[in-house]
Amino acid sequence: MTTLSDETRATFADIRARIATIPRVSLALTPTPLHEAPQLARRLGGPRIFVKRDDLTGVALGGNKTRNLEFRLAHALRDKPDVVIVGLDLQSNSARQTIGCCNKLGLSTILVLEGKIPNEIQGNLLVDYLLGADVRFAGDRDEQRRMLDDAASEVRAQGLVPHILNDNPMFDVASAIAYIECTMECLEQLATVGATPRTLYMSSSGKGQAGLVLAKRLFDASFEVRCVTATREHSVPARTAEIANRTAARLGLELRISPDEVVNFEGYVGQDYGIPNAAGNEAVKLFAETEGLILDPVYTGKCAAAMIDHIRRGEFDRQDVVLFIHTGGVPAIFTHHHLWGRP
Q1: Which residues participate in catalysis according to the annotation?
Q2: What is the pTM of this model?
Q3: Would the N or C end of the chain have less CB density within 10 A of its end CB?
């Protein structure tokens, strides 16, 4: 059985000590499980595949954002707010988890979603209502910003204290810190089964990926970080490097990440953000039919499509170890139920 070296363990201890200096609240069920996916690997005829189950973080159907919210909401609590206000996308996984975490902390939420209220309330939006959020809708980003500020004024007029989570200085850095921590969990869990990862896959447009890239550098690790964006909105390498460098500074680390260290694939977005595509849909079905694992067709499905494509191209040997970090998003399969239902 392979174990981590004493030197690496000391490094992990140092980074954990640095993270421990940052205010946080306990929300997520961690460490999340990690297990092998042999049926999927057999079907693909490729490397060993392991899945990190960050869909099982415990709050409001789980997902990667619950890790981040431990730091974001700890910072918010400094203001002693009564109401947390956040602006996100119509079918946001982050919105669902934010409301659930605020509920656990006894905070009310106002949710301003970009998009029109659909005829059918499904997926994440359905869960948002179930969790009791005050849900409002904005036509575009500019209107959303105005509505966030108006909501804060409304809360103050009631004699209560608001906190706009979008303006929280930990909003991006929290994601990176959370995924440095997640990477350490993954390496420790893989070490217990004698596995060393060659490549890590995760759906990210920069924030979480900043943590993976930092971890690779901090631990002088040999693994590759391959992340897959679900949107063309950002220049992901530049964004990732910028967040990574802010995070390093927040942790008191003297290192710099450059954009050329960041590997992120945008070729699996398809038509646009939030719109499923054939490759992602196939990946969702393949994970379900081989391992009983439910992905979503917007984020994790498109990341899985990239991993599957790379395996089919022969980019890995059978003895390689590939780790897929499952960041959640399961409610989206109900929003897109027409893809899966049969007459």
Answers
A1: 92
A2: 0.95
A3: C
